[in-house]
Structures are given as structure tokens and as C-alpha cells.
Amino acid sequence: MSGPNDIPAHALERLKGLRREGHPGGIFTSDFSVNEFLLVRKAGFEPVGLCVGSCIYHVGIQYGNWSKNEEMTVLSQAMYHARELAMARMREEAQDMGADGVVGVRLTVKRLEWDSNVLEFVAIGTGVVHAAGHAAFKGPKGAPFTSDLSGQDFWVLLQAGYRPLEMVMGSCVYHVAHRGFLKTLGQVGQNVELTNFSQALYDAREIAMERMQHEAIAAEAEGVVGVILHEGSHNWQPHIIEFFAVGTAVIPIAAELAPSVIPDPQLVLSVNG
Amino acid sequence: MAWFSKGPKDREAAERQRAAATAARERLDKWEAALARGGLPDFVQARLSEAAERRAPWLSTMTAAELLLVRSHGARPLATVFGTCWFQFGASWTRGHAAGWRTALERLVEEARACGANAVVDVKLRTSAAEADSMDYSLVGTAIRFDKLPPSPDPVVATTPALEFVRLLEAGVVPTGIAVGAHYEWLTDNSYSGLAGNVFTGNQPLNTLGQFWEGVRRRAHAELRLDAARQGTGVLAHTHFGQILKREVEKQPDQYLGRHIVVGTVVHTRAGDRVPHGIEPVVDMVDEASPLIRTKAGGGMNYMNDEEEGAI
């Protein structure tokens, strides 16, 4: 929607004002809770401002073949493209305010009331900078890192000797075949596995995982932490489901932190059960 | 009619589409063959063995805190693994649910084995697509390997997250698997006459019905114990679902159906083992419900909203 050049002047002013350096009166905005704020600061970072990216997307129409297990490629691409646009816009805003990264990113999909084919994708998180100006915390290609970890988890991740690179995702919209009438009739009253349904779930989920792994490889990550696998249907035909995998790609902080200085976690037993 | 004839670009696009469709069909055929022989398709095998040899980034449901375990205990995440079985319970709801979970479990272990794991942690039971007479039974978890241990031919399955898993290990408790117990029974004899013909009867226990229901639960628990005995010495954090339904039959006494299913985490432990951890008061900085006071394990079970009647 807006490249760096067509952000309105007053917005650019606001973004500049968010950085403390050279702007003693600058203030930060964030949706951190008090605990999150304290732990992000403890991790050596300062919040700069809230970063938002949004994308309203018209999802093309595609009908599943009644009796066939298949990926709905038009829908898959739509969901993926729209999320990517929202994320890219959020990253752009983060870059403009000079953030090293965005913490606590929430990526949501909302259906708009007046048109069932239009979905709104929003990515929102808090841009942060390293307080001592350490430049090594940026994400891939010098862009701000993005992470769906909360402020607390961000602190813990750094304690564990890892830093976030990028939120990675994989999505697959899939049509699960209906059963043929004769087949259904033949199985009435039996306890049997419906293998073509099982297969559909496996295939869809495998495609989503593969795509997520490709993104992780592209980001040159060591691994992906906090993987969540959503299954959802955005008011599509029955039998159409989306598998959506999302997580934060991480890499060890080899240069900054030797494994020996990382504290062993102390395991505690809770008595307030 | 130049716009009508297909240029080389269109032909290329059509070719690509055909190739994609063929590839998709081949994948499905491979899934079908793999599920039939109880194995994995070659492309999944390839992805998981890459994960085993650490040639690809690991994908893990572990939290950031649990990554500390990589350093402190050498528990490395390998891959997110999955087991699913869509099962129709036309003949018996109860037996079907037990069979669905067991098959899903076997398949989860199959994937874990393929990536050279010792254990699968953080296993969640999920059902997303319930239909009138069938449901999918899915298990998702993170396969891990302890640096000091070789890959196991029989990885243990734990519903506990990685942190709790390690905490249990330190206390000498080994989570070993998931056990399922299920039982259903009809009460059809008319010895339960309880209130029949006497609406004004006062307080009284309905003994026949009570005993019947107690029996159903006990049989389910007995089956759970049997299943658990094959894997360990005890069951923790079990979640259960039970229902008692009434069916009216013309000119006959009412019939009752009782069904009960229990799923729990099996552990291996010796009685009287000491707990090595000191206990410390801590300030919890988590905003949502704190994991320190979270009591419910094995989330994602949607038995709570299963209101349908009918099948047994």
C-alpha cells in the first residue's frame, strides 16, 4: 500500500520523534504490559514504537472437486500472500522508526462483514532497539527481526543463547474429499478408519510444514521455536480447511554469548497447584 | 481470431499445471500406500531424516524457556511430529474413540522413530473435524533427542511439555506413553424400577442405575490400568469423558447407555523415590494464566462439547 516514500510527512515526523537519540522529548509507544516492558529492558532493549501492517485482501473463488482430496492453490496463495504483505508492511514501519526488531507480533485474520470473500490481515507488534546500539541483533539481510514471542519469552530466548530472526509461516488450504454414496453405504454401522480423510489431513499438514521449513532455511535459521499449528476454516465451503503453521526462526548468539556463561535453568516445583 | 489460439506461454502454463497436478496425485498415492503398510511416504521420511541429521532447521513447539534445556540437559528438538487417524465409529462410539486414539499414537511414534528421537514431548490431543459418526483423532508433539542417548526404536510419548518432562526425569519419574481405557454398556433389564409408578416417592438412592454407572467407569479404569501396565507403573494427568443416555422403548422398560473413556500419561517410577528439587518462592512475571498454577494437562480434548446421542 505505502512504500517508504509515500508515508505522510506528519507520520514520518512521528516516527522520528519516537527515537530517543537526539530527541530528548521523544516518547515510545508499545502494547507491552509492565512485566513485558521490564523484561525487554532487562534484555538490554528499549521499545521504540508500535508497528502495524495491515492488508485487506480479496480472496479468489475456487471450488473443491466434490470427490477429490486436493490443495486449493488459489486459496493457499491468497492466505500466504496476504499475510506476507501485512508482515512486510509492519517490517517497513519498523525499519522507518529505526528499530532493530519487532517483538510480540500478533498476526490475525478477520472476516469483514460486508463481503465473505474479503479478509483483513493485521500484523502488530512493538519495535525495539538495542539500548547500547549493538547492531548484531538485526534479522536476515539487515532488516528488523520479527518474532511472535512475548517480551518475557524474548528475554528467556536471549538467556538461552539464541536470538530471533524472523517469523516463519507455512500455509495450506485443502479440500477434503466427500465420500461416495456407495462407499458410505458399504461402511454403515462399522468401526473403520476413513483413510482418505486421514490422508487429506496428513497431506495438508505436511505441505504446511514443508513451506515453513523452506522459510526457515531461507532465513538461515538453526531452528524454529514455539511452532503453532492452526487448523481453521474461514467460512469456506464445508470440507475446506486451512493448516497454518507459524513460529519464530532462531539462531544461536555465537559471537555475543559463550555457552558457558549461560545460566543453568533452575527447576522449581510449584506448591500453589 | 488471434486471441483464441494458444501461444507458447499458455502451453507452458498448462504444462506446469499438469505437472503440478500429477505431483499432487503421486503424493496422495504415496500417502495411501504408506498408511496401508503402517509406514511413512518417502518425502516425509526424507524430511525427518534430514531433521535427524540436523541438516535442516528443527521445528519445535517448545517455548523459549525450554531451549535452555538444550544447553543444560542436552535435550535437542528435532521436528514437530504428527499422528492422525480419521475414524468412523458406526458400530461403537466407545470402541471407535479408543481405536482412533491408539492408531494416531502408533503413527506419531512412527514419525518420531523416523527422526531418530528418544522421546516426543508436549503431545496434544486434538480433534478438529467431528462429523455425525466420525471424527479425526490427531496428536501433535515435538520429537526430541538427548545428546547422551542413542536414537530409540521405541520413543516414549509424553503429554507434558519439555520442561516438565525433564523435571520429572530428574525426580526419577519417566513418562513413557499414553494409555487409553474405554467401556460402554447397556442397562436393559427392568430391575431398575426405582420411581416407576410412584411419582411421590421421596429421597432415595437409585441403586441399580448408580451401580450400573459405577460399573461402566470401573471397567474403563480397569482397561486404562491394563493398557498402562504394559508401559509403566502409573498414570498421571488423566482426562476423561463419560455420558449416560436414556432411550425410551415402547411397552418396554427404559434402556440406559453408559459410556466412559479415559486418556492419561503413563509414567514409570518407584514408590518412595525422593524428589531432589528444593522449593523456592518465585515471582511469576507471566501475564496470562501462569504455567506455575496451571493444573490442566493434555489440552485440546473437545469431549466437553460432545452432546450428540445415539451410537454406542
Condensed summary:
The complex is a heterodimer of chains A (273) and B (312). Chain A has helices spanning 9-18, 34-42, 73-96, 151-159, 181-186, 195-218; strands at 45-58, 70-71, 101-111, 118-130, 145-146, 162-175, 191-193, 223-232, 240-252.
CATH architecture of the domain at 58-193 and 207-271 and 291-303 in chain B: 2-Layer Sandwich
Terminal Cα separation of chain A, in Å?
A: 50 Å
Order of helices and strands of chain B: HHEHEHEEEHEHEE
SS content category of chain B: alpha+beta
How many DSSP E strands of chain A?
A: 9
CATH homologous superfamily designation of the domain at 58-193 and 207-271 and 291-303 in chain B? Hypothetical protein apc22750. Chain B
In CATH terms, what is the fold-level topology of chain A?
Translation Initiation Factor IF3
Note the main sheet of chain B.
Answer: 4 strands, mixed
Shape of chain B, please? flat
Going across the major beta sheet of chain B, what is the strand order? 2-4-3-5
What is the β-strand count of chain B?
8
Poorly predicted spans of chain B: 295-312
CATH class of the domain at 58-193 and 207-271 and 291-303 in chain B: Alpha Beta
CA radius of gyration of chain A: 22 Å
Structural class of chain A: alpha+beta
Determine Rg of chain B (CA atoms, Å): 25 Å
Shape of chain A: globular
CATH secondary-structure class of chain A: Alpha Beta
How many DSSP helices of chain B? Answer: 6
